[in-house]
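Hello forum,

I keep getting stuck at the same step: I have a sequence, I want structure tokens, and every attempt I make locally crashes halfway through. Rather than fight my setup again tonight, could one of you with a working pipeline run this one for me? It's a single chain of 141 residues.
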Amino acid sequence: MSVIGSAARRGTTRLLIWLVTMSGAPILQQLHLEEWLLHRTKDNWCVINDDTVAPPLSWGISSVSELVEIEPVLQDRVPVVRRFSGGGTIIVDQGMMFVTFICNKSAIEGLQPFPRDIMSWSGQLYRNVFDRFGEFHLRDC
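Reply #2:
Ran it on my machine without issues. Output:
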């Protein structure tokens, strides 16, 4: 794991974001780190974990029975991890990359702390990164 400080100028304010990079870390380890950062620091963070280890199924703050078919999960002994943050249910498989932003509410000017607003902002950010490889869209499935 490496931690890098990065500064970016936005108008007259200066946003400092700390970058944590991991490779092959289990998603549960990443989630523990993110929760620790959220509750124990006031800094802005970007956590990147590429080639994560499979195979847990992960779900957000909703009830597990709302988002996970319990019988097949128990039958197949699929590890299930609850995230402390919101978001839908995901199945972690080999080679996935996770990018998490943990920021103060005022870190991005004009960004409202609601799922649709954050998804729109992150979609624009990723579009700038991935457009050279073809058309990119971030979609809620």
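The helical segments are 27-40, 64-67, 70-76, 115-130. If your local run keeps crashing, start a new thread with the error log.
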